[in-house]
């Protein structure tokens, strides 16, 4: 029997509920919360040390600009994020943090390097290295099934990106344009855990408007701009080849990527929030205007998370 379609609004509500449920049951240190105050010049947590496990960040934007909150690994890759927090508004984000050193980053104005503050996560006494949520048999099974889903979708994007690269190499603009949006569908479906792949997310999917000064630009959107603004493939062959290499790297990383029930639920919730507030305006596909393809894939990917994690 075909699976019934689930409205995006309902998927978003369920994803948000899953985040809250997992935060309450997935860690031996359940209930940990950090208040983080952001201003135009500061990013100040109430404490700089917490125990490993599930942590809720309670972000309060007391500045005059729209702000963002990130948790970064030492290499700069993103563990989790909360975007588009208006002045005077609070927001919450839940994250599972193994022991280690991290950085909290606020981005007033949502541009530049932002303001970074060290965060130390210590090993919880008597706790296993793997968060309790991942040790729950049903949730562990959900992660395994989702990892398989991610592998399949990543492979699908890679296969179509190879066809896209071939069309670019051959100078076939019409075929390259026709392959552009379909090649992105697999990637857009797995965006709930895009942060699990570290530097590949910006290398593959950075938008021109998000680039910091002097930052190198690569990925799909470079191809998009070239194809739709110049109606030519001139100079795009190396970009397409690099995209294929990065997607091959993505496929190779899937088996060992850090994916947890909380990162799945939190990622789905954040992604749908981004769809509702940002992608709906057309900011993602500024040149091709194929935003609806991305948005549908985002909702489908978030629905997969809901299907796997929702109580039976």
The termini sit apart by 18 Å
- Largest sheet entry: 5 strands, mixed
Which sequence of strands runs across the widest sheet? Answer: 3-9-8-5-6
Q: What is the annotated CATH architecture of the largest domain?
A: Up-down Bundle
Q: Strand pairing plus helix content: what structural class?
A: alpha+beta
Any idea of the CATH topology of the largest domain?
Answer: A middle domain of Talin 1
The CATH homologous superfamily of the largest domain is termed: M75 peptidase, HXXE motif
User: What is the overall pLDDT average?
Assistant: 87
Determine the fraction of residues in helical runs and give it as a percent range.
40-55%
- Radius of gyration, whole Å: 20 Å
> What overall geometry do the principal axes of the alpha carbons give?
globular
CATH C-level of the largest domain: Mainly Alpha
Number of domains: 2
Count of distinct strands: 9
Give the secondary structure arrangement, pairings included.
Layout: H1 8-25, E1 33-38, E2 43-45, E3 49-51, E4 53-61, E5 67-72, E6 78-85, E7 90-97, E8 100-106, E9 115-122, H2 132-135, H3 137-170, H4 173-189, H5 200-205, H6 220-229, H7 237-253, H8 261-277, H9 291-309
Parallel strand pairs: 1-4, 3-9
Antiparallel strand pairs: 1-2, 4-7, 5-6, 5-8, 8-9
Helix pairs in contact: 1-8, 1-9, 3-4, 3-7, 3-9, 4-6, 4-9, 8-9
Summarize the structure in short.
The chain is α+β, with helices and mostly antiparallel strands. The chain has helices at about 10-25, 130-135, 135-170, 175-190, 200-205, 220-230, 235-255, 260-275, 290-310, and strands at about 35-40, 45, 50, 55-60, 65-70, 80-85, 90-95, 100-105, 115-120. It has a five-stranded mixed beta sheet with strand order 3-9-8-5-6.
């Amino acid at each position: 029997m075909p699976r019934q379609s689930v409205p995006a609004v309902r998927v978003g509500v369920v994803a948000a509920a899953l985040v809250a449920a997992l935060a309450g049951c997935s860690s031996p240190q359940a209930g940990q919360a950090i208040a983080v105050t952001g201003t135009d010049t500061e990013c100040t947590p109430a404490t700089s040390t917490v125990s490993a496990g599930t942590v809720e960040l309670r972000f309060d934007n007391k500045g005059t600009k729209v702000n963002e909150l990130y948790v970064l690994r030492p290499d700069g890759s993103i563990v989790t994020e909360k975007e588009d927090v208006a002045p005077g508004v609070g927001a919450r984000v839940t994250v599972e943090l193994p022991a280690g050193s991290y950085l909290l980053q606020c981005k007033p104005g949502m541009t530049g390097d932002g303001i970074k503050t060290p965060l130390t996560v210590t090993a919880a006494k008597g706790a296993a290295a793997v968060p309790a949520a991942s040790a729950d048999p049903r949730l562990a099974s959900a992660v395994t099934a989702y990892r398989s889903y991610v592998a399949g979708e990543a492979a699908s994007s890679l296969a179509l990106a190879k066809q896209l690269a071939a069309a670019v190499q051959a100078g076939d603009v019409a075929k390259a344009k026709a392959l552009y949006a379909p090649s992105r569908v697999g990637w857009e479906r797995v965006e709930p855990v895009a942060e699990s792949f570290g530097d590949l997310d910006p290398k593959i999917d950075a938008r021109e408007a998000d680039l910091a000064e002097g930052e190198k630009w690569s990925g799909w959107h470079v191809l998009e701009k070239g194809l739709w603004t110049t109606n030519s493939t001139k100079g795009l062959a190396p970009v397409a080849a690099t995209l294929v290499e990065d997607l091959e790297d993505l496929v190779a990383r899937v088996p060992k990527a850090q994916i947890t029930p909380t990162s799945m639920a939190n990622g789905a919730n954040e992604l749908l929030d981004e769809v509702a507030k940002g992608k709906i305006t057309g900011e993602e596909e500024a040149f091709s205007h194929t935003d609806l393809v991305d948005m549908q894939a985002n909702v489908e990917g978030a629905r997969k998370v809901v299907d796997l994690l929702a109580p039976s």
